[in-house]
């Protein structure tokens, strides 16, 4: 049996392991610090408030934006995406989306279709879902109000050309979901003129679950999604209209933010290269019954890919890998039925693989060995 | 230090940003609760020694941080 550094290949669901500093920071915070954010001025709260603001600053660096005050924390990227999609005053209009959107985008849009006559339309793309930027203008109409792009698909790992997409959508507001890409794919929010960026802390950034948030370039365009106490303008029954308070009602997840900050300050380097992943994909492509669901252009391949087999269901592949080798992967639709419909893998879905920074080239080779064994059995 | 002038900001993010900038420039600050007699947008404010106030104002304005100065005993 091949020796793996670790058998966890489900990092597109949540990353594991985390940098050793993350649990240490959380433990230290819970044991010795505590306190909430900005609700008083004694030292405990001062330190916690400074910690949250330091994390905001670090997030601004990762997102490639200068104004950290326009970054709001939330419990995850789904909440962040809902905050943006529901917070914009969308009605009787059209939203352009990538073909590989997650339900975190599709379900809010479907809700708006029913309630506010907001319709979505898929942008032109290659067979793998990679958007063709120069063909976008012909799809923009009088009613188009927003463009939503999943930066990296959580099914086939396709990375979308955000900078080029911006060049072809004119002044339309652009929302990018960086859930799968952030931490492994560079992001330059200011240079690419992205209006809204949703992120999660627990995937590529290697932070704890329960952390995420969004960047909003112009807070005047976005209403609050949740209402409550902020520690500011407390005399008023209305939410403050300035960012980030406008979007941060209620007590912050200071434990989670503390862990996220530790992750951001101790980011690990990826232990394998794109060429190692390409070798694995090419090897799988040679198995006659297997279809590899990945990017056509290797430059657009992120650290996620899927497979389907003519005779083995995705759940059978996942179960065999786990029972025989302890390999942990996810099978099914990965909360992205729209992507699977586009890729013609609906309704069974795929068996999905997502290595982490902590895997090695040898791990990817070993994964290929065990896959060849179970897929040709 | 609570008799010293207060620097008022709209929110905690700005208070902590100002505090960090001041410390980086060796300006001594203290974060205190905003006194009840002041109508402020934020529950925290900064106290800076009068001798360092002028330099503090220059440094914060250079960074584009908006704030109000409140002298104790005056209405906000």
Task: Explain this structure.
The complex is a heterodimer of chains A (377) and B (76). Chain A has 377 residues and is an alpha/beta fold. Helices cover 33% and strands 14% of the residues of chain A. Chain A folds into two domains: 21-265, Aspartate Aminotransferase, domain 2 (3-Layer(aba) Sandwich); 274-375, Alpha-Beta Complex (Aspartate Aminotransferase, domain 1), CATH 3.90.1150.10. A seven-stranded mixed beta sheet of chain A has the order 1-7-6-5-4-2-3, with helices on both faces. In chain A, α1 runs antiparallel to α6 (254-265). The longest helix of chain A is centred in the first third of the chain and has 21 residues, at 43-63. The two termini of chain A are 16 Å apart. The mean pLDDT of chain A is 97. Chain B is an alpha+beta fold. Chain B has helices at 12-24, 50-62, and strands at 6-8, 29-33, 44-48, 68-70. Chains A and B meet through α2 of A and α1 and β2 of B.
Please, what is the oligomeric state?
Answer: heterodimer
What gap, in angstroms, lies between the N and C termini of chain B?
19 Å
CATH class of chain B: Alpha Beta
Number of helices of chain B: 2
What is the fold's blueprint, element by element?
The complex is a heterodimer of chains A (377) and B (76).
Chain A: H1 21-33, H2 43-63, E1 71-74, H3 77-87, E2 93-97, H4 103-116, E3 118-122, E4 144-150, H5 162-168, E5 174-177, E6 196-200, E7 212-216, H6 254-265, H7 274-285, E8 290-293, E9 305-309, H8 314-325, E10 330-332, H9 337-343, E11 350-353, H10 361-375
Parallel strand pairs in A: 2-3, 2-4, 4-5, 5-6
Antiparallel strand pairs in A: 1-7, 6-7, 8-9, 9-11, 10-11
Chain B: E1 6-8, H1 12-24, E2 29-33, E3 44-48, H2 50-62, E4 68-70
Antiparallel strand pairs in B: 1-3, 1-4, 2-3
